[in-house]
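User: Modeling request: complex.
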Amino acid sequence: MSVFSVDHLRVRFGGVQAVRGVSFGVESGRTLAIVGESGSGKSASLLGATGLLPGSASVEGNVLHRGQEILGLPDRDLRRLRGPKIGFVFQDPLSNLHPLKTIGDQIGEAISVHQKRITRRQKHERVLALLDDVGIADPQARFSDYPRHLSGGMRQRVMIAIAIALDPGLIIADEPTTALDVTVQAAILDLLKRLQEEHGTALIFVSHDLAVVSDIADDVVVMRDGLIVEKAPADDIYLRPRQDYTRELLGAARLGGPKSYAVQRDRQATRPLLDVQAVARSFGSRPVLDDVSFTIGEAEILGLVGESGSGKSTIGRLIAGLDRPDAGRISLQGRDYSQPGSSGILPGDLRKSIQVVFQDPYASLNPRRRIEAILADPFVIHGTVDKAELREKVRQLVTDVELPHDVLDRLPSQLSGGQRQRVAIARAIALRPSLIVADEPVSALDITTQAKVIKLLARLRDKLGVSFLFISHDLGVIGELCDRVIVLEKGQIVEVGQTQRVFERPAHAYTRRLLASIPGRKRPPAEAELEDVVYG
Amino acid sequence: MADTIHSPVALVVPRASPSPGILLLKRLWRERAVRTGAVIVGIVLLAALSAPVVSHLLGHGPMEQFEGAALDEMGLPIGPTLEFPLGADGNGRDVLVRTLYGAQVSLLVGVPATTIAMIIGTAIGLVSGFFAGRTDRIISQAIDVALSFPFVVTALSLLALNRGGTGQPIVPPMVVVITIIALFSWAYFARLARGLALELRTSPMVEASRTIGASWARIIWLDILPNILPTVFVYWAVQLPANIVAEATLSFLGVGIQAPMPSWGNMIAEAQRTSLYQEQPWFLAGPGLALFLTVVGFNTLSAGLRNVLDPNRRRA
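Assistant: Request completed. Predicted assembly structure:
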């Protein structure tokens, strides 16, 4: 008998049917992965099934917990289920932990809320055992730490400790590793797997990425537009996918690393465009960058990879002229433009030469202006006044980034994430820059959209001859797009080289550790033909 | 199951939707507080506009005294009758007509005062928040100083200065009252706008504009201002009832709108001073309830607007 199963589940928010009849179940000791892109209804179906959606949402169908119908149970009864019987781990541990309570208290609360008669001493011991269980070193010392004292990975371990505090038969983990670095993600996946084996728990793991769940899933449900596209044992999904959409997701998933490397070109011939010399930067007393030097060639895509806090975004901001270094200098085509103490404003022609694409297209486009106005801005600022000419230039831009012309009349909120990022790219190429700093430009996008935007960037490089500094924490993306790659650890460059060489023969221990953490190593890409599906 | 998938992954642009303005109005109307508030505010506006009509229909001017018809043989005002729907005041004037004209005065003082304060405060706050650093420190100090003046005491002294040698006001008192109220409420708008601008100036949206070379004036005007305006407008609706009460306070103290011109403040003051409300309760209740209704209306409206427009308060 399934520990937890849903049957013909439908979830509706007002006029929007988010989930349109899905059925799945999970048994003890097994892991069910639910995979789908944003808006596919994967989270809505689980939140709906466990009564965690607001009252305005309507949920229909059957939800069985150990054979007992739980849909429509009163809140009291559901609360008795959530915690002791069903544990939850969500995406963002920082917003799910109370900032003013120690982690020991918060884990203890998860216990005492359901076991009123537990003594203080028993509770304390149980919390210490849990902290130890989720792999937090020195639990005694950590007990009275606040969430802000912990790293992202440690916070997620605390969340997991809360979820398993009462040894529930089922754990629902909704994108538990999405906000984490790749090495931390690997550790959390290992932890979940180990706990599951020790306790025989059933696990439902929600993710947008087939690669992440590839090592942990026994069964996979692929969802799209509120429906199940394919439901099969993991081996079948990864080795013999039956649906085109599953193949498309698999193609975009980069199991175990990049599928193909950027075509090698003769980079020796290109002249250096940007020169970064011994740059250092610190915020207050905390050094962020230390003695960083590198060059970017003309029409080169240079990858910059590192974990959060490694200083990679700071490098991007320094090069873009949004920040000043404390030491060292940066020059473009032999012209120094950024050094300690220089003013915050780049001279006009240099300003045009260096453009930026930001991570979050939801935040980098003014929500109150239409796309046409946003894209006309660079031209207006740099002197184009003629209306017809302006319109022509903007239309050309939209064509360059492969968007239909009718996006021009829309507001950013009426576009999808991928479309918005294309608009941001269009704005960056408007002034025909020689260098574009792209700071995690695809991390906020769905995985199939990522593949398309990366292809677009490569084509733009070929067409316009523009260089890119491509900042990312995702090694797979870097491998597929970049000619060369820089590996950054704690503000220092530990390795530089041709992408393929670095990925295949990493010289530095940190690079090796990063590469080993890429999810899906244990499932090498099944068939070569998959690549046609992605890039066809 | 593939046949049940409807939408292709291709770049599909959603159908053209109605203009954002219409959508916003629809969203506002779905909020009950907005509906209730809008109805009450509508009634107040209607009352203010209908004052001359009612005055004409009843044949009573706002400052006309009807000692024969409206005062009894003891000289006390009569209660509600057909001719005087809310009765009369101690001078035999029609309380209903005066209350309606009072609504005009309240709005004529409150709306311009709040609007002036909003424009000045938002401009100062934007500059302070956007430039940060030293500019911000100086302006913030100025805001703190402005907020530390006691309202009534300062207003009384300023209005006392507005007396020429003959005891006649130099500047029309209404203008002075508007100026004083604006002087005392711009700082709240400045603080609000400063905080919002401070948050936006380091946002990717503003940095994106900086990287294409936009001037600071362009960034403030096109990027920051349109994005903080909804919040500022909500605050306008929050501040307006407070300013209407401020006008009533000054008139109550006898330094605002001068008798015989009707204002809710001086009507309440007169009812209270003469104790005639014990004989003719509507003398006090008319302007009192009108003031209450106006404040409740604007407060309800602003609470509703905030529920809809403030992104931090939007419910899941």
